[in-house]
Structure formats: structure tokens, C-alpha cells
Design goal:
Blueprint: H1 4-19, H2 25-35, H3 38-41, H4 44-64, H5 70-86, H6 90-107, H7 118-130, H8 134-148, H9 158-239
Helix pairs in contact: 1-2, 2-5, 4-5, 5-6, 6-7, 7-8, 7-9, 8-9
Amino acid sequence: MTHPASVAQEISLFRSRIQNRWIDDVTIRVLESILVSKDVQSSIEFKSVLKLFMRDESLLIFGEIAEESVEIKLTCAEFLVRVFAMIGDVESCLALRYEALVLRDEMAAVHPELQVTCKEWLTFAEHSLENGFHSIANQACEKARMCSGAIHLESDDFLHDVHVMEKIDRLKDSALLKISSQSVQAQAKAYSKQKKVKESTQQLVISTETQKGSSLFRSGIKKHNLRKLHEYRCLRMLSG
């Protein structure tokens, strides 16, 4: 069992290496050592803090390398993708993977070796859809469709190409269905909220009108009693 003091030292070492921009396998191994600790595995708070730390640092890192070469940017992106995957930050992991793929796509004209394949976009679309990021999955399907190019009827890989296009369409349809479903749910939620507000307002109006009506009724009774009392006093005076 890892001693708590040792874990604390490793956490401090990991933070230090990240802040000093040691983007390498040694830093990854330090993180691995931290995450295998039973104390850390059971600490939701620690993982939450680590996610926030890495999100802040990743923003700083990309700000610092804005003018650097595409190779450095991709190296940093790949490193951060590994880190976010290890700490269970799926959202940040997918966001960085998408940015790295887009960067490669943009630089492919100058660096053909960086060209993103249709298979890479499809794999990314599947992962995004599985983890509930439907809009990103839809965008990835569009990218896959663009890089797949036209289907050649005389190609030996014609059936394979058709299969790929069908898979893209299935993934895209699933993503759009999920997006549409979320939109409907959001509209239903908004309608429900609006209906509750309307009902509350109506209840308030009814309550106010009821109180007003009750007040008028009591006032009428009071005036009626005063009039009867006045008539009674007049009769007493006449009879006296």
C-alpha cells in the first residue's frame, strides 16, 4: 500500500512537472503512480481538483505555444489527451482530440503526412456519440464524409466505400436524432416551467381575488349590521 506521504510527494511532483512544462513520458508515469494509489482511487475530491488543475494548465499551455510549430502543438495536444483520459475527464479528452484532428486537417496542404483519414474521423465520431457528445459526433461525420470523397463505381474497393458511406450516414442520423431529442426535451422542460409559472400566477390572482371578495363580503355584513343597529336605536327613541 502506498504511503499517504509518498502520494502527496508524487502529486506535488506531478503538478511541478506540468507547471514547468515537462511534457513527456516521465510525467505520465508519475500520474500513473498517483492514480494506482487506493487513497486517490477513492478520492472523488482529488480527481475533481486534478481535472480543474489540468483544464487551467491546458489553456495556459496552448496560449504559450500559439506561435509554435504544428509539431509542437500536436505533441502537446496528444500529451494532454493522454492525461485527461487517465484522470477520467472525457469531455476535455474529446475536445482536445477534435482540436488536434482539425489542426492536422488545416495543415495537411503543407504537410500531407498529417492528413486525417476517414477512419480516424469515424472512430472519433463513434467515441463522441458513445459519450453523449452528439453535436461533436455530427461534425465529425461531416468531416468523414468530406474526406471520404466520391465513390468510384469502377474501384476495386467500391463495396468497401459504400459500406463506409452507409456507416457515416448511420452515425450522423443517430447524432441528429439525439440532438433533436435533446431539443424536444429542452422545449418540453421550458414549456413545463412556463406552465408552472403561469399556474402559480393564476393561483396568486385567485387567492388575491378570493381575499378581495371575502373582504367585500365582510364589509357588506358590517354595513348591514350597522344599518340594523341604527334602525333599532331609532325605534327605541320613538317608543321612548
